[in-house]
């Protein structure tokens, strides 16, 4: 970067935006998207290491960071901790991101689009990882580079943790942070993942809802049996499973098991959510106002309450019908819950509810999926105010402040294991298509994100 800009807040923001306008940012992101860093597929393990070696380490070397690599047997890829200590008396910020992605599913993408090729269309960059999470940490890295190019220093200490297994459930991350707590010690976490509340609404969130999967199964017998000969004589696992789901979730989507909800929404959380409006963008589905927990606003349903959703159901083969009573039925349900739910009480409560409905034959099968605990930093802390004021100074309007993300992230590792206040500044939006086909990142969010992060970094370095 060779811009001759004054060492000022406006100067570092201009330098960050030049990374976009010059095409450098797009070239960097295209190269990163082209690496198929799918952490759940064994064949792509070399790509996980290549992303660290070829993309991340060279950037941090250029920016004057010391890079350390950590490995754990349970993790699909290595962990990178890049550290730049300018003065032990200065505050230390820990940042976080992940370089792995979910599988590409190229057959589901729109014509002309491919998961591991960056394609620009209608003001959006398409490709796997553009939103989750390569595009987001690329914004932060470009903003850091702009600050150092213009100012010559950060004015604070920075540790940047990158993992290659978040989409695998972040195995061994908690263990690593506990074992190496001194290496990760900081005053606060600033990270970027997940979506904003809306396309045009810069957002801060302070934690994440927890996520856990509940697997249900009914196995009646072996083999299919003709429905004309055996209907009315043999129990139908599909019917039993349908009643089990209905015992847990009401016809309008309300979770019917009180132990799976927080019971109440804390006053400070309710107050914060009263200022939040969920807005849809072009291409988003229309909201179903009648769906979900009654008496709550849309924001409260997503950020302050629990949702129990059916993810998959298997019974028979609808594409190749046998017209026979199936021998088994299975379903995977997913609970998203805020702070206030005792996760140890979830499965016993589900078992009691099924038994009360006379559905003893429905089994709860141990889930092998990774679970994320819920976590949330305090809404009223100095770092939240500091980052919010910085974003308002840059954007000319206050950001939306959410108590937590509606989805799940390994935030509890930073709040509980490392004891840090956590502030997430996302550079994506709900309609980005993450984990599905046509994942994309609007260029408008990149532009705002570069300005926002350059402003935050400048303000951190000039904090009185």
From TrEMBL:
<keyword id="KW-0645">Protease</keyword>
<protein>
    <submittedName>
        <fullName>M20 family metallopeptidase</fullName>
    </submittedName>
</protein>
<dbReference type="InterPro" id="IPR002933">
    <property type="entry name" value="Peptidase_M20"/>
</dbReference>
<keyword id="KW-0378">Hydrolase</keyword>
<dbReference type="InterPro" id="IPR051458">
    <property type="entry name" value="Cyt/Met_Dipeptidase"/>
</dbReference>
<keyword id="KW-0479">Metal-binding</keyword>
<dbReference type="Pfam" id="PF01546">
    <property type="entry name" value="Peptidase_M20"/>
</dbReference>
């Amino acid at each position: 970067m060779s811009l001759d800009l004054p060492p000022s807040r406006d100067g570092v923001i201009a330098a960050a935006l030049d990374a976009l306008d010059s095409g450098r940012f797009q070239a960097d992101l295209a190269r990163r998207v082209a690496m198929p860093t799918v952490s759940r597929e064994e064949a792509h393990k070399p790509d996980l290491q290549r992303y660290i070696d070829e993309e991340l380490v060279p950037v941090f070397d250029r920016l004057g960071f010391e890079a350390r690599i950590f490995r754990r047997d349970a993790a699909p890829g290595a962990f990178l901790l890049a550290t730049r200590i300018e003065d032990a008396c200065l505050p230390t910020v820990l940042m976080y991101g992940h370089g792995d992605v979910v599988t590409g599913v190229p057959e589901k993408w729109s014509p002309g689009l491919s998961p591991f090729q960056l394609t620009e269309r209608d003001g959006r960059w398409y490709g796997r990882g553009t939103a989750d999470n390569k595009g987001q940490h690329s914004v932060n890295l470009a903003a850091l580079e702009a600050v150092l190019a213009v100012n010559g220093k950060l004015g604070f200490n920075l540790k940047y943790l990158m993992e290659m297994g978040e989409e695998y459930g972040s195995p061994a991350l908690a263990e690593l942070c506990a074992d190496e707590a001194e290496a990760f010690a900081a005053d606060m976490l600033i990270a970027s993942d997940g979506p904003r509340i809306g396309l045009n609404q810069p957002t801060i969130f302070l934690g994440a809802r927890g996520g856990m999967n509940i697997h249900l199964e009914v196995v009646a017998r072996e083999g299919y049996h003709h429905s004309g000969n055996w209907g009315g004589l043999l129990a139908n696992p599909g019917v039993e499973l349908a009643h089990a789901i209905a015992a847990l979730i009401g016809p309008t989507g309300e979770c019917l098991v009180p132990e799976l909800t927080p019971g109440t929404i804390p006053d400070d959380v309710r107050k914060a959510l009263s200022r939040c409006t969920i807005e849809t963008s072009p291409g988003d589905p229309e909201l179903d106002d009648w769906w979900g927990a009654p008496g709550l606003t849309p924001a409260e349903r997503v950020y302050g309450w629990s949702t129990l959703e059916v993810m998959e159901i298997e019974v028979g083969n609808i594409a190749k019908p046998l017209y026979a009573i199936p021998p088994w039925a299975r379903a995977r349900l997913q609970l998203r819950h805020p702070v206030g739910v005792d996760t140890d009480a979830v499965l016993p409560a589900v078992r009691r509810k099924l038994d009360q409905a006379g559905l003893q034959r429905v089994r709860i099968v141990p889930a092998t999926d990774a679970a994320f605990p819920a976590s949330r930093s305090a809404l009223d802390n100095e770092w939240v105010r500091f980052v919010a004021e910085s974003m308002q100074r840059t954007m000319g309007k206050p950001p939306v402040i959410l108590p937590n993300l509606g989805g799940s992230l390994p935030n509890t590792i930073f709040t509980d294991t490392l004891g840090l206040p956590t502030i997430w500044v996302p550079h994506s939006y709900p309609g980005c298509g993450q984990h599905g086909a046509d994942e994309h990142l609007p260029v408008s969010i990149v532009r705002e994100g570069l300005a926002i992060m350059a402003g935050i970094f400048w303000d951190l370095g000039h904090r009185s």
